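job 3f2a | input accepted
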Amino acid sequence: MHLISIKIAINLGIFESLRLQTAAEGYARLEAMALGLDKPEELLGRILRHLAAWDTVRDIGINQFAATPTSNAFLDAGVASGPEFWIHLSSVGMRNLPSYLREHSYSNLGTPSKGNFENADRKGPHFFEWLIEEPTAFQAHTDHLDAFTRDRTGWLDIYPAHERLSADGESHHSLLADIGGGLGRDALMFRRRFPNMAGAVIVQDFPEVIADAFKVLPPDSGLVLQAADFFEPQSVQGAEIYLLHYILHDWADIDCLRILQSTKVAMRKNHSRLLIVESIIASEKADAFSTALGITIMSMVGSRERTENDWRELIAVSGLHIEAIYTSVGNGDCVIEVAVK
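job 3f2a | predicted structure (341 res):
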């Protein structure tokens, strides 16, 4: 009810009205808000009282409410994408998960087209195939992932790229191949962080995603956009960096091995590095965020968040080896640097 109330408040313009009136008078009167928004006072009162019970807004008197840092935060499109993501995506799998696990004797987290999400949606396609066909869900997914990565310590602030990359690369070689790179956010940050570093910076994803990337990236981005399937052999040969940012946690081990193998064949020994950017879950005393993310991933794609030992075992089986693991303190990604043996 809290999330639903937040989403209704966003739709009604409650948070913006609260912000303006709180800034002007120190609080907002329910009657004035209803008049200004041209919405029923009784409905706004129900929503505001519930939000106040969760401290999302402040209840300071009879029919008087004030904005908070939390309510103001939902005026940011990235933060507002959270409830949208839950309503259109994660709730589909979450509500079905208890019955799915029970029906499968708690032993089958799912395989493509046969997992919990596919069972919940009743349409059959894998989550990512479904996403392409659902514009509202696709937009919620894109916006939420953008906000999610934006508000965490980024991999470029963890991984010492300036030390690990060649300074004398040639302009015709490939510097970075961002596999499953979405709308190019990571690649664009990389290009802007290292504007004078020679070599192509490439973004690969579904054709539909690449088409959107062409629309949203600035004309002078300097990025190369490619439609690609990461289960197929990698077409970019000998890049200095191959990047998999929050890709492998969406797939079971058997599928991860296919992705790793398709990348491995393109990597050049003593030159190429594969960077796997993920949230590594602690083996003991794991935090609530990581454990919640793990259950969300399980409900949507039948996969999981992995411990450091899980990653080491998976990468060893792939025939690659870990050179280093870079971590940050607090809310950030971990970067697993992998090379060809």
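job 3f2a | DSSP finds 16 helices and ten strands in the chain.
job 3f2a | closed
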